[in-house]
Specification:
Helix content: 40-55%
Number of strands: 10
CATH superfamily of the largest domain: MTH777-like
Mean pLDDT: 77
Number of helices: 10
CATH architecture of the largest domain: 3-Layer(aba) Sandwich
CATH class of the largest domain: Alpha Beta
CATH topology of the largest domain: Rossmann fold
Strand content: 5-15%
Number of domains: 2
Order of helices and strands: HEHEHEHEHHEHEHEHEEHE
Radius of gyration: 21 Å
Distance between the termini: 34 Å
Low-confidence stretches: 24-31, 203-207
Amino acid sequence: MDEREHEQLVRRVVERVLARLGPPAASPPPQARRGVLLLLPVAPLRLAELAAEAARVRAAGHELRTLAPPPVLRELDRAGLRDRFGAEILDASQPGPLEALHARRPGDLVVIGALGFDFARRLVELQDDDPLVRTVAQVLLGGGTVLAAVDELAPHAPGVAGELVRRAETLRRDLEQLGLALVTGAEWEERLGRAAAASTTVARSVGGLLSEEDVRRLWAAGERRLVLPPRTIVTPLARSRAAALGLELAEKGS
Protein backbone atom coordinates (compact mmCIF):
# COMPACT_ATOMS: atom_id res chain seq x y z
CA MET A 1 0.00 0.00 0.00
CA ASP A 2 1.54 3.34 -1.05
CA GLU A 3 1.24 6.62 0.88
CA ARG A 4 -1.77 7.88 -1.06
CA GLU A 5 -3.72 4.67 -0.54
CA HIS A 6 -2.80 4.82 3.15
CA GLU A 7 -4.09 8.40 3.37
CA GLN A 8 -7.38 7.45 1.70
CA LEU A 9 -7.78 4.58 4.17
CA VAL A 10 -7.09 6.89 7.13
CA ARG A 11 -9.64 9.38 5.78
CA ARG A 12 -12.34 6.70 5.47
CA VAL A 13 -11.67 5.41 8.99
CA VAL A 14 -11.74 8.90 10.51
CA GLU A 15 -14.95 9.80 8.70
CA ARG A 16 -16.66 6.62 9.98
CA VAL A 17 -15.51 7.18 13.55
CA LEU A 18 -16.67 10.81 13.51
CA ALA A 19 -20.02 9.80 12.04
CA ARG A 20 -20.56 7.38 14.93
CA LEU A 21 -19.48 9.93 17.53
CA GLY A 22 -21.85 12.55 16.17
CA PRO A 23 -21.12 16.22 15.42
CA PRO A 24 -18.61 18.09 17.61
CA ALA A 25 -19.80 20.56 20.21
CA ALA A 26 -21.07 23.79 18.75
CA SER A 27 -18.42 26.43 18.29
CA PRO A 28 -18.43 29.94 16.91
CA PRO A 29 -18.42 30.10 13.09
CA PRO A 30 -14.94 30.44 11.63
CA GLN A 31 -13.77 33.90 10.70
CA ALA A 32 -13.20 34.16 6.97
CA ARG A 33 -11.91 37.71 7.26
CA ARG A 34 -8.50 38.61 5.93
CA GLY A 35 -6.42 41.70 6.35
CA VAL A 36 -5.30 43.47 3.18
CA LEU A 37 -2.52 46.05 3.07
CA LEU A 38 -3.01 47.86 -0.24
CA LEU A 39 0.04 49.77 -1.49
CA LEU A 40 -0.44 52.53 -4.06
CA PRO A 41 3.00 53.89 -5.04
CA VAL A 42 1.36 55.57 -8.06
CA ALA A 43 -2.20 56.43 -8.97
CA PRO A 44 -3.45 53.44 -11.01
CA LEU A 45 -4.70 53.84 -14.56
CA ARG A 46 -7.84 51.98 -13.49
CA LEU A 47 -8.43 54.07 -10.35
CA ALA A 48 -12.25 53.89 -10.42
CA GLU A 49 -12.18 50.10 -10.89
CA LEU A 50 -9.66 49.67 -8.06
CA ALA A 51 -11.80 51.85 -5.79
CA ALA A 52 -14.82 49.64 -6.56
CA GLU A 53 -12.79 46.50 -5.82
CA ALA A 54 -11.61 48.01 -2.52
CA ALA A 55 -15.19 48.83 -1.58
CA ARG A 56 -16.29 45.24 -2.32
CA VAL A 57 -13.43 43.86 -0.21
CA ARG A 58 -14.51 46.05 2.71
CA ALA A 59 -18.17 45.13 2.23
CA ALA A 60 -17.19 41.45 2.46
CA GLY A 61 -15.86 42.12 5.96
CA HIS A 62 -12.14 42.12 5.22
CA GLU A 63 -9.92 44.68 6.91
CA LEU A 64 -8.44 47.00 4.30
CA ARG A 65 -5.61 49.43 4.96
CA THR A 66 -4.20 51.58 2.18
CA LEU A 67 -0.70 53.03 2.10
CA ALA A 68 0.15 55.73 -0.44
CA PRO A 69 2.41 58.78 -0.86
CA PRO A 70 0.88 62.30 -0.71
CA PRO A 71 0.50 62.76 -4.52
CA VAL A 72 -1.62 59.60 -4.76
CA LEU A 73 -3.70 60.62 -1.73
CA ARG A 74 -4.36 63.98 -3.41
CA GLU A 75 -5.43 62.15 -6.59
CA LEU A 76 -7.89 60.04 -4.57
CA ASP A 77 -9.32 63.22 -3.08
CA ARG A 78 -9.50 64.93 -6.48
CA ALA A 79 -11.38 61.96 -7.93
CA GLY A 80 -13.70 61.82 -4.91
CA LEU A 81 -12.80 58.16 -4.30
CA ARG A 82 -10.97 58.30 -0.99
CA ASP A 83 -13.92 57.05 1.05
CA ARG A 84 -14.07 53.85 -1.04
CA PHE A 85 -10.80 52.76 0.57
CA GLY A 86 -12.12 53.16 4.12
CA ALA A 87 -10.86 55.12 7.09
CA GLU A 88 -7.45 53.45 7.35
CA ILE A 89 -5.54 55.33 4.67
CA LEU A 90 -1.93 55.86 5.69
CA ASP A 91 0.45 58.48 4.34
CA ALA A 92 3.62 56.69 3.19
CA SER A 93 5.69 59.78 4.04
CA GLN A 94 4.72 59.34 7.71
CA PRO A 95 5.63 56.51 10.16
CA GLY A 96 2.56 54.56 8.97
CA PRO A 97 4.37 51.94 6.82
CA LEU A 98 6.19 50.39 9.78
CA GLU A 99 3.03 50.39 11.92
CA ALA A 100 1.07 48.77 9.08
CA LEU A 101 3.74 46.11 8.70
CA HIS A 102 3.75 45.29 12.42
CA ALA A 103 -0.05 45.00 12.39
CA ARG A 104 0.02 42.29 9.71
CA ARG A 105 -1.20 38.83 10.68
CA PRO A 106 -0.28 35.46 9.14
CA GLY A 107 -2.54 34.92 6.15
CA ASP A 108 -2.96 38.63 5.42
CA LEU A 109 -2.29 39.80 1.88
CA VAL A 110 -0.11 42.68 0.75
CA VAL A 111 -1.26 44.02 -2.62
CA ILE A 112 0.52 46.57 -4.81
CA GLY A 113 -2.53 48.00 -6.54
CA ALA A 114 -0.57 49.94 -9.14
CA LEU A 115 2.92 49.12 -10.34
CA GLY A 116 4.35 51.76 -12.67
CA PHE A 117 7.68 51.52 -14.46
CA ASP A 118 9.53 53.78 -12.01
CA PHE A 119 8.36 52.01 -8.84
CA ALA A 120 8.94 48.58 -10.42
CA ARG A 121 12.54 49.61 -11.18
CA ARG A 122 13.06 50.90 -7.61
CA LEU A 123 11.62 47.67 -6.26
CA VAL A 124 13.88 45.48 -8.40
CA GLU A 125 16.88 47.54 -7.30
CA LEU A 126 15.67 47.40 -3.66
CA GLN A 127 16.03 51.15 -3.19
CA ASP A 128 15.16 51.10 0.49
CA ASP A 129 15.04 54.89 0.82
CA ASP A 130 11.48 54.40 -0.49
CA PRO A 131 9.18 53.39 2.43
CA LEU A 132 6.99 51.29 0.14
CA VAL A 133 10.01 49.38 -1.17
CA ARG A 134 11.10 48.77 2.44
CA THR A 135 7.62 47.52 3.31
CA VAL A 136 7.54 45.06 0.39
CA ALA A 137 11.09 43.84 1.11
CA GLN A 138 10.31 43.17 4.79
CA VAL A 139 7.12 41.28 3.93
CA LEU A 140 8.97 39.08 1.43
CA LEU A 141 11.84 38.47 3.86
CA GLY A 142 9.26 37.42 6.45
CA GLY A 143 7.79 34.83 4.09
CA GLY A 144 4.66 36.87 3.35
CA THR A 145 2.69 37.00 0.12
CA VAL A 146 2.83 40.13 -2.05
CA LEU A 147 0.57 40.46 -5.08
CA ALA A 148 1.45 43.11 -7.66
CA ALA A 149 -0.98 44.44 -10.27
CA VAL A 150 1.06 44.81 -13.44
CA ASP A 151 -1.46 46.49 -15.74
CA GLU A 152 0.89 49.46 -16.21
CA LEU A 153 3.67 47.09 -17.31
CA ALA A 154 1.62 45.77 -20.22
CA PRO A 155 1.52 48.59 -22.82
CA HIS A 156 -1.93 48.86 -24.41
CA ALA A 157 -1.44 51.44 -27.15
CA PRO A 158 -0.90 50.08 -30.67
CA GLY A 159 2.50 50.72 -32.16
CA VAL A 160 4.26 51.01 -28.78
CA ALA A 161 8.01 51.10 -29.16
CA GLY A 162 9.66 47.69 -28.99
CA GLU A 163 12.16 48.96 -26.42
CA LEU A 164 9.33 49.83 -24.00
CA VAL A 165 7.85 46.35 -24.40
CA ARG A 166 11.24 44.77 -23.73
CA ARG A 167 11.68 46.92 -20.59
CA ALA A 168 8.26 45.84 -19.34
CA GLU A 169 9.02 42.16 -19.94
CA THR A 170 12.38 42.45 -18.16
CA LEU A 171 10.81 44.18 -15.16
CA ARG A 172 8.07 41.56 -14.90
CA ARG A 173 10.64 38.77 -14.99
CA ASP A 174 12.80 40.49 -12.34
CA LEU A 175 9.79 41.08 -10.08
CA GLU A 176 8.86 37.40 -10.25
CA GLN A 177 12.42 36.44 -9.33
CA LEU A 178 12.16 38.82 -6.38
CA GLY A 179 9.21 36.77 -5.13
CA LEU A 180 6.19 38.85 -6.13
CA ALA A 181 3.05 37.20 -7.48
CA LEU A 182 2.07 39.16 -10.58
CA VAL A 183 -1.64 39.66 -11.24
CA THR A 184 -3.74 41.79 -13.56
CA GLY A 185 -7.01 43.61 -13.22
CA ALA A 186 -9.20 42.37 -10.39
CA GLU A 187 -7.30 39.10 -9.94
CA TRP A 188 -6.09 40.21 -6.50
CA GLU A 189 -9.70 40.47 -5.33
CA GLU A 190 -10.37 36.93 -6.59
CA ARG A 191 -7.19 35.72 -4.82
CA LEU A 192 -8.43 37.29 -1.59
CA GLY A 193 -11.74 35.50 -1.97
CA ARG A 194 -9.94 32.15 -2.36
CA ALA A 195 -7.86 32.86 0.75
CA ALA A 196 -10.97 33.68 2.78
CA ALA A 197 -12.75 30.55 1.60
CA ALA A 198 -9.74 28.41 2.49
CA SER A 199 -9.82 29.68 6.07
CA THR A 200 -12.79 27.40 6.73
CA THR A 201 -10.88 24.27 5.64
CA VAL A 202 -9.19 23.71 8.99
CA ALA A 203 -12.30 24.68 10.95
CA ARG A 204 -14.18 21.91 9.14
CA SER A 205 -11.50 19.44 10.18
CA VAL A 206 -11.88 20.09 13.93
CA GLY A 207 -11.57 16.68 15.51
CA GLY A 208 -11.04 15.35 12.00
CA LEU A 209 -8.43 15.08 9.30
CA LEU A 210 -5.95 17.42 7.63
CA SER A 211 -5.05 15.89 4.27
CA GLU A 212 -2.45 16.65 1.63
CA GLU A 213 -5.21 18.22 -0.48
CA ASP A 214 -6.01 20.62 2.39
CA VAL A 215 -2.34 21.56 2.67
CA ARG A 216 -2.06 22.28 -1.05
CA ARG A 217 -5.23 24.42 -1.02
CA LEU A 218 -4.18 26.41 2.05
CA TRP A 219 -0.70 27.05 0.62
CA ALA A 220 -2.17 28.26 -2.69
CA ALA A 221 -4.45 30.61 -0.73
CA GLY A 222 -1.46 32.27 0.94
CA GLU A 223 -1.30 30.46 4.29
CA ARG A 224 2.21 30.09 5.70
CA ARG A 225 1.47 29.12 9.32
CA LEU A 226 -1.44 26.90 10.31
CA VAL A 227 -2.72 26.57 13.87
CA LEU A 228 -4.39 23.17 14.17
CA PRO A 229 -7.52 22.77 16.31
CA PRO A 230 -7.42 20.13 19.07
CA ARG A 231 -7.81 16.49 18.01
CA THR A 232 -6.88 17.22 14.39
CA ILE A 233 -5.29 14.20 12.69
CA VAL A 234 -2.57 15.11 10.20
CA THR A 235 -1.84 12.42 7.64
CA PRO A 236 1.83 11.59 6.99
CA LEU A 237 1.47 12.76 3.39
CA ALA A 238 -0.02 16.08 4.55
CA ARG A 239 2.82 16.61 7.04
CA SER A 240 5.39 15.77 4.38
CA ARG A 241 3.79 18.13 1.87
CA ALA A 242 3.61 20.94 4.44
CA ALA A 243 7.31 20.53 5.21
CA ALA A 244 8.18 20.57 1.50
CA LEU A 245 6.16 23.74 0.88
CA GLY A 246 7.29 25.49 4.05
CA LEU A 247 3.81 25.59 5.62
CA GLU A 248 4.28 25.56 9.39
CA LEU A 249 1.90 23.32 11.33
CA ALA A 250 1.41 24.38 14.97
CA GLU A 251 -0.75 22.94 17.69
CA LYS A 252 -3.32 25.33 19.15
CA GLY A 253 -1.81 27.05 22.18
CA SER A 254 1.80 26.59 21.04
